[in-house]
Design goal:
The structure is a homodimer. Chain A is of the alpha/beta class. Chain A has 2 domains: about 70 residues, Hypothetical PUA domain-like, domain 1 (Ribosomal Protein L25, Chain P), CATH 2.40.240.20; about 150 residues, SPOUT methyltransferase, trefoil knot domain (Alpha/beta knot, 3-Layer(aba) Sandwich). Helix content of chain A is about 30%, strand content about 30%. In chain A, the strands form 2 sheets. The first copy, chain A, has a 6-stranded mixed β-sheet. Chain A has a 6-stranded parallel β-sheet with strand order 9-8-7-11-10-12, sandwiched between helices. In chain A, helix 2 runs parallel beside helix 3 and helix 2 packs parallel to helix 6.
Amino acid sequence: MDEHFLFYVPPGQIDHARLQFTEDEAHHITKVLRKQPGDIVQATDGVGNTMDVRLIEVDKKKVAGEVIATYNTPAEPDRILAMGVIRQRERLEFAIEKAVELGVTKIVLVHSEHAGRMEIKSRRIDKTIIAAIKQSRRPWLPAWEERDSFFDVLAAYRESREVVMAHPDVEGTYEWKAEDTPMLLLVGPEGGFSPNEVEQAVASDIKIISLGQKRLRTETAVCAMLVLANLGR
Amino acid sequence: MDEHFLFYVPPGQIDHARLQFTEDEAHHITKVLRKQPGDIVQATDGVGNTMDVRLIEVDKKKVAGEVIATYNTPAEPDRILAMGVIRQRERLEFAIEKAVELGVTKIVLVHSEHAGRMEIKSRRIDKTIIAAIKQSRRPWLPAWEERDSFFDVLAAYRESREVVMAHPDVEGTYEWKAEDTPMLLLVGPEGGFSPNEVEQAVASDIKIISLGQKRLRTETAVCAMLVLANLGR
């Protein structure tokens, strides 16, 4: 059995013990890995199930198989990351890839005051997230969405979550909460949070933490926040 | 004064209060930022000094200036990162960039058992490191080198350092030492450490820690180790 990748199959393409891979996955299975009928691969539905799948039909456009075993993985700790959008596409995709590897459960791309509005290519974001769960063998597919401001983010997700904002030059220490605490992590765009955004955070009693004395790029701060939230205790 | 970038000037190009920028920096100053004589920029010699520099001569091949103020930054905690080389150039450069932002003091690229030998383009590594200190405004330039194996790394750097290796599926917890403890951090290549490398680490009583249940890419493990060593307490 090939355990190197965990292929992603949307739940709608699984019908009892029979499933059909998407075209992207079919391409990977046939053209890159050159699998044959009878070969066994592992796949996830993105909602916690990992399946051993015996391939039945292997065509470059259509790959189908039967599920011969299913394993369930419990839900992961709630980690919503709201980050200012990054203009450089590779850096944005890198931030998303790393967030997925490091355990994010939802990514919110924020057209914040210093980030400005920019067009997001949905299909590329989807592909980046799927590639990252495949590579890191993670059976939960994080969701993602766009929001117009950090205020929108707070209105939508603040309730019942610990909210932590990364911002340079703040004093004091912060003790990360237990791993199962639902968290909303806020990371600014290149250029950081606006004075207005910081003021509102202070006023609404959000935890503001410093990530050290060096100036970090957005994608680096994304990595640091998730490492600290998930491993830093 | 433009405080956005911290330009790098090798100590050999500084003669008392007068300095000359390298050609790469001259290009950045003239072509990208379009500075003029009289403008003031900040530069570092990479050994802890940050200088305010008034530009005197501004030509696309030669930019020179005079130092009008110098600030000294104490040495940073000793953090040697030894990582298996990554075949994909962008991922290797990304790992290096992130290590620099997150406070590495020396990077050792290891042609380890599972990494194999690969040609390293020195000039690109130099450029990546310099770009990262400029961007993160860090006045210390990390060194880098290549080594043939992790055994070489241990022989060279183990003494008087806390040695921590990231490896999946290990049990137990690890308490990171105080920030000023000299540390040698070991991260495997794609494909991880070889059984031989792990066995030797176990035998020589190196601390082996897990970075969670998900499989991390090399560059992600690099970020996680440095975040934990520098911020995770």
